[in-house]
Amino acid sequence: MKLLVVSDVVNQKLYSPLVTTVAKDVDIIISCGDLPMYYLDYLVSSLNKPLFYVCGNHDHYTKKKTWCEGLREVNDFKYHSLNYQKKCFFGGVNIDMKVVEKNKVLFAGLEGSYLYNYGEHQYNENQMWNRILMMSPSLFYNRLRHHRYVDVVVSHAPPYGIHDQSDLPHRGFEAFVSFIKTFKPKVWLHGHTHLYDRNATRITKVNGTYVINSYDYQIIDLDQYLGENR
Fold first, then answer.
1. Is the C or the N end of the chain the one with fewer CB within 10 Å?
2. CA 97-154-121 angle, 5° bins
3. pTM of this prediction?
4. What residues does 19 pair with on adjacent strands?
5. How far apart are CA 143 and CA 208, in angstroms?
6. Using CB atoms within 10 A of its CB, is residue 192 exposed (0-12), middle (13-18) or buried (19+)?
7. Between the CA of residue 93 and those of 1, 30, 116, what are the distances in Å?
8. Where are the beta strands (DSSP E) in the chain?
9. What is the mean pLDDT of the chain?
10. CA-CA distances (angstroms) from residue 48 to 1, 102, 176, 204, 205?
11. Cα(165)–Cα(163) distance, rounded to whole angstroms?
């Protein structure tokens, strides 16, 4: 299975007819957050593939009095509008705090960044721990049914000490490090940490989990990480 994983920036090569060449053989689109609705909608429409996403700290939902009435995209540098109404969404499935199965692969999602100015989709460590605890029954159910908790975790922020930075907005979560030790996902996909150096580290293996910074976009062949043990 191949994934097109996008995060944080609109790539002009993907936001064009070239997307059907660049990502022609992907099976699923994954968004790690901080992307506008029009971009995700274009990817889904062009590739005709399912989309799983989590929100970043610069995404926010807009709740309207009537569905689709006055839907407005916010295209400035601060916020990206993601419509909350079920009848007017952009073709994706929000997997935050959910565990879903697709093509025999188990996905889980955890949105947001570390708390720094009390904006939407920002959490402190205790709040993130609570979110993981609320999701854990589904993970234990997977263990009973599939003999593993989860294969791929999708988050916006990285785990603490892995691809993160020292400032609060770009700090990773210690709760994610414990999640990796406890539930042992094969792959952890995140964004949030912008990469401007081609030689910067994108992939780090931690306790058997490949943590992948998906800033901009990555095409990932899951088979090389999951193997046959699924």
1. C
2. 55
3. 0.88
4. none
5. 17
6. buried
7. 18, 10, 27
8. 2-7, 28-31, 51-53, 59-62, 80-83, 92-94, 99-102, 105-110, 113-114, 122-123, 152-155, 187-190, 203-206, 209-213, 216-221
9. 88
10. 15, 15, 32, 31, 32
11. 7
Judged by DSSP in three states, 106 sits in strand
Q: Which helix (H) or strand (E) holds 174?
A: helix 174-183
Average pLDDT score over residue span 46-73: 69
How is residue 219 annotated by DSSP? E
| Spatial contact of 16 and 68, defined as CB atoms under 8 Å apart | no
* Distance (Å, whole) CA 129 – CA 99: 16
- Asked if residue 78 lies in contact with residue 157, where contact means CB atoms within 8 angstroms, the answer is no
CA distance 30 to 156: 11
Domains of the chain in start order, with CATH, are 2-226 (3.60.21.10)
Distance CA 53, CA 108 (A): 10
